Amino acid sequence: METLLSLFAQASLFELLAPSPPGWGGTLLRGLANSVQIALGAFGIGLLIGTAGAYGKLYGGPVIRDLMEVYTTVVRAVPELVLILLLYYAGTDLINRMLEAMGQPRIDISGLVAGIAVLGFVQGAYATEVIRGAILSIPQGQIEAARAYGMSPLLLLRRITLPAMLPFAIPGLANLWLIATKDTALLAVVGFNELTLATRQAAGATKAYFTFFVAAGALYLLLTLFSNVIIGWVEKRARRGIPAVGGAN
């Protein structure tokens, strides 16, 4: 056993110290750029779905509330990889079947668009619960006062609800963003050229598995650290004027 561990350590050290084959650094960076594009798009769609879903759960009629409950329960219960495979293949096929039924030609859906839509649909279920909890954390007197002044629902959302719930929602939404950056790796199973698939291709072509997967891990880590800096800045601005927890009265 000790001999095997020694051989593995020597092989890993050799791969790490050996010069990387030329031409693959750009491939990894392009894969990272694709991953960031997908994560940004999916997170944005998830926010829109989550905001609508939270309002539907809180203020919608019985039918809307039941539909939102089914949506969030199913998406959170089924593994994300299964949802991605189902939505990516079955969803694109369903769209083309509908187009054919209407006499329209089939379309070739972009992998980038499909990846963003699939992950955005998944993100929306989690964002619904995060935003719903944040809205419930708002002191109800603020909302009642706005309604007493005759604010329309959209004006109430823009001026009262969204600004007031943001400090409560940021921690949960920050976690969803970090999850979105890592969930892009799941799209490798459907052949989309994001960072994980690019890493697999580079490692398979050069056999330098340790080198390239360590490099991919480092890129994901750098993305997370950069995201944490941005999230911290946004949270600091959103909490201006709010006493810090445990601070002096």
Automatic annotation (TrEMBL):
The chain crosses the membrane at residues 35-58, 70-89, 109-127, 160-180, 209-234. The keyword Transmembrane helix applies. Keywords: Cell inner membrane, Cell membrane, Membrane, Transmembrane, Transmembrane helix, Transport. SUPFAM superfamilies: MetI-like. It holds the Pfam family BPD_transp_1. GO terms for molecular function: transmembrane transporter activity. InterPro entries: AA_ABC_transptr_permease_3TM, ABC_transp_permease_HisMQ, MetI-like, MetI-like_sf. This is ABC transporter permease. It comes from Aquibium carbonis.
